């Protein structure tokens, strides 16, 4: 009955009690009957080391199964096998005892690995709630681990590199990176290390790597040569106050109460100790060799026991893997012979992307977060540190949960760095935290001194001069590097990255000095104005320091830092920063022209973004009225920064982003599943965020500014002219001299847009892309003045790459900003008809007051003209429409003319050069010009109009209702018949003032027709441009009579025509005539003799107002 009862309580196979029971039953079944009887007798009457005996009455009739159950009942699963082994040894069955011991150890190893898997397969984030944990494998991303030492120059380069350059360095390092499974890999000569040190800065992922090693070993993925791997965190070792042996330390690592220590310790070469965080040990390791342990069972103070393990006086055949921060290398060297040293550098660019995807799990959020961080060069660089990655992702995840835009996040780069510092200091004890303010102030002095000296590596003596000898705190903030110097090795220190050094340097100017800096070596002054002055001169080197200055003035960030460090941070430099910001945009050109109201550097916006104080930003920007950024590559983060300033810009009137490229990160660039990329794109389109200028437009719509001018163009050639050139006028803007220069510039640069800026002028030429090369129209007259040639400089030609979606983002601004009068989107060939359709929704709104609209070279077709025609009839404010260099053709112009003929249309300037117009288009324009007297300037250059097309156009010019004053018909395939039609129109037209006919095959006979009308007293033409019209000396007599008879002509361009001395001699007769009013004449210099050039120069004495220019 008793036996049955015992059997009915047999544990289930596979349970801990069942494993012990199975091993015991197997051992008992191997015993012969006589030995089994002796075993039971000893079990009932022997000495079991304090364990009670089982009464013989219970054992006398028990079989092997009953005996097993009785032993489990009396001794429990943990002690039952120890008792069994002891009994077998007492009856001298040593082989049976050894087999049971070996079987127990093997089964324990399985159980140990299973427990290790359970313990390390899940991790908790630092801010995790109770029960909130995640899979280590699901979160872990590979780290870049290198074993090749870098020299001093390579270290400096690595510390100072930023953005793409840093990513390239990390990529190169990643190519030679080793995996954690290679740490104990034999060298090529077969030697296997027993002691491996894994270096890494604070937060770089050492503990996570150590835990991954534990999990992978337990999963039989790495280090299969070790039977046991024990994890000892040094922070826990600090808490051990009682004595302990190496065996005790192992027991603490093992689940259960009775690990098979004897069996484990018999094979020390099969043991690996992972010592995590050596730098956190607060023990001294100066013990003499004689004080150390030699036996694993020897109980001594923990520091002695650990020293013995490190120095290999105990278990000298075991292996050690020690993780430590670099600044603890000297301390480690006193107690350890490092056989192989590896260094964790952090995440490569690919691993950063992988981490984001693993963290968010939601692929759309991961893509959006990556897009944001990649744009912030400083932050993306520091995301090489896993803890910074975690901080950044955690903050962004909270933003997503609140349905907030990442652009509205108050967690700036400064905020991320403050949280990084907070995470580092969280591991300090309360006692050590009391020293933190002193350490921090001294560290800031060191950082500032290094920034001023452009130094990132500090010698040990320099660090000691700042009394930075707190070995417990220092490894948090500084890395130690050991370099070979001559025949010795020297230690140097650095911050984890230059940006972190610059963070501390900025803090140097804000920390309140409590007196201890007087005892420190002479360093930089705390005068922030000196820093700002030097930044103004050097720009690049102090840039990030100045950004952090602004960021640390944010009240929330300041309070968080004070709470964490115990330091007092003074905001007293706020006013100095404000004054500097307002003065910083006073360039030499701006001072010269007394123009100080434009923001000309994106860096100003970066500084304002860091402070995240809208009142401060509004006050700072109240001094300015516009933003002038040209040729800047605006990445995603730049756009966020710029948008923040725009939103808080109270007096914004102009926003000029000419030649700027809006870099819009493509989710194709990121890792992650294809479905995630597609989902991300669809969500962006659904929310209207697929436009590269979405953020900017959103800011403009919400701001209270009175924007007047918005320019986003590309492909422009800048002509800069200073005071010493012929483009400097002291007369009024509409003087004939200035007007003559305008026409000359247009003649030399077909399709140009000429605009004046304070102190210089800009000639904008639309370029085309042919076979991958940016091609400009033929530029004639590179040196327009023999006295002071124009200074030509190419601006940046990076495409703005605005798409149709951008127009959808701009449309709300046109409705909201009644002050916006100029919109320039020229040169964005991806806008297309779809984009213009979206744009017209805003232009047609009653509140829209746009006066100038430039859509040149935007890949428009006739389809756009129908929408634009509706705008012309609905927007009476529109006075200048530029649709040049688009494939509109006759059909498109016919549609456009329907809008031009509407009573509400008030267009004054219409530019349609290079729009593929022909005769039919001219007929539609002629009708429209008669119906709409508001058009005063018509630009039809570079269209194949031909004589028949011009004849149709002249029908309107002869109509008294037509008020066109400027007509540009260069390169329009005109010949003599076209001139005949124009001549007839000139005799009756009273409004035409400028006629541009350059680059047409007019010939002498055609020009003779024109001259007949130019001599007529009714003709009012002031400017006539006939460059490259195949003219000879035969037409000069006609021009001479025009010069003497015309009562209006002041500008004549005959350049690039072969007139010769004889022809020019005839012109001179007309120029000398007392009634000649001409002020500007352009001629071809080649073909003229020196004598003729002297005769022309002599004309200045007779005609002081006459200027003659040559090409």
Automatic annotation (TrEMBL):
<keyword id="KW-0472">Membrane</keyword>
<keyword id="KW-0010">Activator</keyword>
<keyword id="KW-0333">Golgi apparatus</keyword>
<keyword id="KW-0564">Palmitate</keyword>
<feature type="domain" description="Pyrin">
    <location>
        <begin position="1"/>
        <end position="106"/>
    </location>
</feature>
<comment type="function">
    <text>Independently of inflammasome activation, regulates the differentiation of T helper 2 (Th2) cells and has a role in Th2 cell-dependent asthma and tumor growth. During Th2 differentiation, required for optimal IRF4 binding to IL4 promoter and for IRF4-dependent IL4 transcription. Binds to the consensus DNA sequence 5'-GRRGGNRGAG-3'. May also participate in the transcription of IL5, IL13, GATA3, CCR3, CCR4 and MAF.</text>
</comment>
<dbReference type="InterPro" id="IPR029495">
    <property type="entry name" value="NACHT-assoc"/>
</dbReference>
<dbReference type="Pfam" id="PF13516">
    <property type="entry name" value="LRR_6"/>
</dbReference>
<dbReference type="Pfam" id="PF14484">
    <property type="entry name" value="FISNA"/>
</dbReference>
<dbReference type="InterPro" id="IPR006553">
    <property type="entry name" value="Leu-rich_rpt_Cys-con_subtyp"/>
</dbReference>
<keyword id="KW-0804">Transcription</keyword>
<dbReference type="InterPro" id="IPR001611">
    <property type="entry name" value="Leu-rich_rpt"/>
</dbReference>
<keyword id="KW-0378">Hydrolase</keyword>
<keyword id="KW-0547">Nucleotide-binding</keyword>
<keyword id="KW-0964">Secreted</keyword>
<dbReference type="InterPro" id="IPR032675">
    <property type="entry name" value="LRR_dom_sf"/>
</dbReference>
<keyword id="KW-0206">Cytoskeleton</keyword>
<keyword id="KW-0539">Nucleus</keyword>
<keyword id="KW-1271">Inflammasome</keyword>
<dbReference type="InterPro" id="IPR027417">
    <property type="entry name" value="P-loop_NTPase"/>
</dbReference>
<keyword id="KW-0496">Mitochondrion</keyword>
<dbReference type="InterPro" id="IPR004020">
    <property type="entry name" value="DAPIN"/>
</dbReference>
<dbReference type="Pfam" id="PF05729">
    <property type="entry name" value="NACHT"/>
</dbReference>
<feature type="domain" description="NACHT">
    <location>
        <begin position="194"/>
        <end position="398"/>
    </location>
</feature>
<dbReference type="InterPro" id="IPR041267">
    <property type="entry name" value="NLRP_HD2"/>
</dbReference>
<keyword id="KW-0256">Endoplasmic reticulum</keyword>
<keyword id="KW-0395">Inflammatory response</keyword>
<dbReference type="InterPro" id="IPR007111">
    <property type="entry name" value="NACHT_NTPase"/>
</dbReference>
<dbReference type="Pfam" id="PF17776">
    <property type="entry name" value="NLRC4_HD2"/>
</dbReference>
<keyword id="KW-0449">Lipoprotein</keyword>
<dbReference type="Pfam" id="PF17779">
    <property type="entry name" value="WHD_NOD2"/>
</dbReference>
<dbReference type="Pfam" id="PF02758">
    <property type="entry name" value="PYRIN"/>
</dbReference>
<keyword id="KW-0597">Phosphoprotein</keyword>
<keyword id="KW-0832">Ubl conjugation</keyword>
<keyword id="KW-0399">Innate immunity</keyword>
<keyword id="KW-0805">Transcription regulation</keyword>
<dbReference type="InterPro" id="IPR011029">
    <property type="entry name" value="DEATH-like_dom_sf"/>
</dbReference>
<keyword id="KW-1017">Isopeptide bond</keyword>
<keyword id="KW-0963">Cytoplasm</keyword>
<keyword id="KW-0067">ATP-binding</keyword>
<keyword id="KW-0677">Repeat</keyword>
<dbReference type="InterPro" id="IPR041075">
    <property type="entry name" value="NOD1/2_WH"/>
</dbReference>
């Amino acid at each position: 009955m008793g036996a049955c009862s015992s059997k009915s309580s047999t544990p289930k196979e596979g349970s801990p009690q069942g494993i012990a029971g199975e091993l015991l039953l197997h051992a008992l079944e191997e015993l012969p009957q006589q030995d089994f009887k002796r075993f039971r007798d000893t079990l009932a009457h022997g000495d079991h080391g304090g364990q009670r005996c089982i009464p013989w009455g219970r054992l006398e009739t028990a079989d092997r199964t009953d005996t097993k159950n009785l032993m489990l009942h009396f001794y429990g699963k943990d002690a039952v096998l120890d008792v069994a082994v002891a009994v077998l040894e007492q009856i001298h069955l040593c082989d049976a005892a050894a087999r049971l011991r070996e079987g127990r150890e093997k089964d324990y190893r399985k159980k140990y690995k299973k427990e290790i898997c359970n313990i390390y397969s899940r991790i908790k984030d630092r801010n995790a709630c109770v029960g909130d944990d995640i899979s280590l494998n699901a979160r872990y991303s590979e780290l870049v681990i290198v074993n090749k030492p870098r020299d001093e120059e390579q270290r400096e380069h690595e510390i100072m590199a930023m953005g793409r350059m840093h990513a390239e360095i990390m990529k190169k390092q990643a190519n030679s990176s080793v995996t954690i499974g290679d740490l104990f890999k034999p060298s090529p000569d077969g030697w296997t290390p027993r002691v491996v040190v894994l270096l890494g800065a604070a937060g770089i992922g050492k503990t996570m790597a150590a835990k991954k090693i534990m999990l992978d070993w337990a999963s039989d993925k790495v280090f299969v040569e070790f039977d046991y791997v024990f994890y000892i965190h040094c922070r826990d070792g600090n808490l051990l106050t009682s004595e302990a042996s190496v065996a005790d330390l192992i027991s603490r690592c093992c689940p259960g109460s009775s690990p098979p220590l004897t069996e484990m310790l018999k094979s020390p070469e099969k043991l690996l100790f992972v010592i995590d965080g050596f730098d956190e040990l607060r023990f001294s390791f100066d013990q003499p060799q004689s004080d150390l342990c030699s036996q694993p069972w020897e109980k001594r103070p923990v520091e002695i026991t650990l020293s013995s393990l490190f120095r290999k006086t105990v278990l000298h055949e075991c292996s050690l893997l020690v993780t430590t921060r670099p600044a603890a290398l000297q301390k480690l060297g006193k107690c350890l012979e490092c056989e192989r040293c590896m260094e964790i550098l952090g995440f490569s660019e690919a691993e950063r992307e992988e981490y984001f995807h693993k963290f968010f799990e939601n692929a759309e959020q991961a893509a959006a977060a990556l897009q944001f961080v990649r744009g912030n060069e400083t932050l993306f660089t520091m995301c090489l540190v896993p803890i910074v990655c975690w901080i950044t992702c955690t903050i962004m995840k909270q933003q997503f949960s609140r349905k907030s835009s990442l652009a509205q996040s108050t967690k700036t780069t400064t905020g991320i760095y403050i949280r990084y510092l907070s995470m580092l200091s969280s591991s300090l004890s309360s006692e050590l935290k009391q020293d933190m303010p002193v350490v921090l102030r001294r560290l800031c002095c060191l950082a500032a001194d290094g920034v001023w000296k452009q130094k990132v590596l500090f010698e040990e003596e320099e660090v000691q001069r700042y009394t930075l000898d707190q070995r417990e705190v220092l490894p948090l903030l500084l890395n130690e590097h050991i370099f070979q110097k001559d025949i010795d090795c020297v230690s140097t220190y650095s911050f984890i990255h230059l940006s972190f050094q610059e963070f501390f340097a900025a803090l140097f100017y804000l920390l309140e000095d409590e007196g201890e800096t007087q005892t420190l070596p002479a360093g930089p002054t705390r005068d922030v104005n000196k820093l700002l002055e030097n930044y103004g001169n050097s720009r690049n080197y102090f840039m990030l320091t100045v950004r952090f200055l602004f960021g640390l003035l944010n009240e929330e960030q300041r309070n968080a830092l004070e709470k964490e460090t115990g330091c007092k941070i003074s905001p007293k430099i706020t006013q100095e920063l404000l004054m500097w910001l307002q003065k910083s945009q006073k360039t030499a050109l701006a001072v010269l022209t007394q123009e100080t109201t434009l923001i000309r550097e994106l860096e100003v916006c970066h500084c304002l973004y860091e402070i995240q104080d809208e009142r401060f930003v509004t006050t700072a920007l109240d001094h300015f009225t516009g933003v002038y950024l040209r040729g800047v590559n605006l990445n995603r983060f730049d756009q966020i920064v710029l948008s923040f300033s725009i939103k808080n810009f109270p007096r914004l009137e102009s926003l000029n982003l000419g030649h700027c490229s809006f870099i819009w990160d493509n989710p194709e660039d990121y890792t992650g599943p294809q479905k995630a990329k597609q989902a991300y794109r669809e969500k962006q389109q659904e929310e209207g965020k697929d436009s590269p200028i979405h953020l900017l437009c959103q800011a403009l719509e919400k701001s209270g500014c009175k924007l007047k001018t918005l320019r986003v163009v590309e492909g422009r050639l800048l002509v800069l002219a200073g005071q010493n050139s012929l483009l400097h006028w002291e007369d009024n803007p509409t003087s004939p001299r200035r007007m003559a220069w305008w026409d000359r510039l247009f003649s030399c640069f077909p399709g140009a847009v000429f605009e004046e800026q304070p102190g210089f002028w800009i000639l904008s030429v639309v370029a085309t892309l042919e076979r991958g090369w940016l091609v400009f129209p033929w530029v004639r007259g590179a040196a327009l003045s023999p006295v002071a040639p124009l200074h030509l400089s190419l601006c940046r030609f990076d495409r703005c790459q605005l798409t149709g979606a951008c127009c959808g983002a701009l449309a709300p601004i046109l409705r909201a900003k009644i002050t916006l009068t100029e919109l320039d989107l020229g040169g964005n060939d991806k806008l297309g008809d779809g984009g213009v359709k979206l744009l017209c929704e805003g232009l047609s709104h009653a509140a829209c007051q746009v006066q100038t609209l430039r859509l040149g070279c935007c890949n428009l077709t006739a389809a756009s003209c129908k929408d634009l025609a509706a705008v012309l009839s609905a927007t009476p404010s529109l006075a200048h429409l530029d649709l040049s260099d688009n494939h509109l053709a006759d059909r498109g112009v016919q549609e456009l003319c329907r809008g031009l003929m509407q009573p509400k249309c008030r267009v004054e300037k219409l530019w349609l050069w290079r729009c593929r117009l022909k005769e039919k288009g001219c007929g539609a324009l002629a009708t429209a010009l008669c119906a709409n007297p508001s058009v005063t300037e018509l630009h039809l250059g570079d269209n194949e109009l031909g004589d028949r097309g011009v004849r149709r156009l002249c029908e309107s010019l002869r109509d008294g209702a037509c008020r066109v004053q400027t007509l540009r018909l260069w390169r329009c395939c005109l010949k003599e018949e076209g001139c005949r039609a124009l001549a007839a129109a000139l005799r009756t037209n009273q409004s035409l003032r400028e006629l541009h006919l350059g680059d047409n095959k007019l010939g002498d006979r055609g020009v003779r027709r024109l001259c007949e009308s130019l001599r007529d007293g009714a003709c009012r033409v002031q400017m006539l441009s006939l460059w490259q019209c195949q003219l000879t000396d035969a037409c000069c007599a006609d021009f001479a009579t025009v010069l003497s008879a015309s009562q209006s002509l002041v500008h004549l361009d005959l350049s690039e025509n072969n007139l010769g001395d004889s022809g020019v001699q005839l012109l001179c007769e007309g120029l000398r005539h007392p009634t000649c009013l001409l002020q500007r004449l352009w001629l071809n210099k080649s073909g003229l003799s020196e004598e003729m050039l002297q005769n022309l120069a002599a004309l200045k004495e007779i005609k002081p107002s006459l200027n003659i220019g040559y090409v």
